[in-house]
Design goal:
With about 150 residues, the chain is mainly α. It is about 75% helix and about 0% strand. The longest helix is centred in the N-terminal third of the chain and has 27 residues, at about 5-30.
Length: about 150
């Protein structure tokens, strides 16, 4: 399998996963609310829709618009191990969000991914871990009135 075919399959897989989340995941997890002006499922649908469209564009680009290269796909044990570590971090983050709250889970995942990507300066890790979840929480909770877990 060449790298081009591998990336096309990843794009197609992302599109199919986004479609499944759009059709079954969002309706199952997001409850309708008549007390807010913005529908609670708007942002999840926008995010999942964007991921699905970008995955489809990636698939189409790799299949039809890119010249054929014979570079082998980067499927090695080390790469699979790193992917499993990231998946485990996201699983812990989702568990924290569901049990403790969005802010704790958000701080955990952004901090863990910042360290995972190689940042070692404590103040940069702290800023990256705290600011984005706090801003997202403030945007949804305070500005839009949409409660987060």
């Amino acid at each position: 399998m060449t790298l081009r075919i591998f990336e096309a399959l990843v794009g197609a897989g992302l599109s199919l996963l986004a479609l499944a989340i759009w059709l079954w995941g969002i309706p199952a997890w997001v409850e309708p609310n008549d007390f807010v002006t913005v529908a609670p499922d708007l942002m999840p649908r926008v995010a999942v829709g964007a991921i699905g469209v970008l995955g489809a564009l990636m698939c189409l680009h790799r299949l039809f618009l890119e010249p054929d290269r014979t570079t082998p796909a980067p499927i090695e044990p080390a790469t699979i191990g790193l992917a499993l570590i990231v998946l485990a971090l996201f699983a812990v983050s989702v568990t924290l969000m569901l049990t403790v709250g969005f802010l704790v889970g958000g701080v955990f995942i952004t901090g863990a991914l910042t360290v995972f990507m190689g940042q070692r300066t404590w103040w940069a890790i702290l800023l990256t871990a705290v600011c984005p979840p706090l801003l997202l929480w403030g945007f949804f909770e305070v500005l839009l009135g949409i409660p987060l877990p």
